[in-house]
Amino acid sequence: MKYKFHHVVVIGAGTMGGGIAALLANVGVRVTLLDIVPNKLTPEEEKQGLTLQDPVVRKIYDAARSVDIALVGIGQIAERTPGFCSLAEAYGVSVRRLRELGVVGEINYQPFDADGRLVDRPELRPLMRRVLAVGGERLQELSRRPDRTVIAVAGGPAKVEAVRGALRGRFFNVLVTDEDVAAAVLGR
Question: How many domains does the chain have?
Answer without folding.
Answer: 1
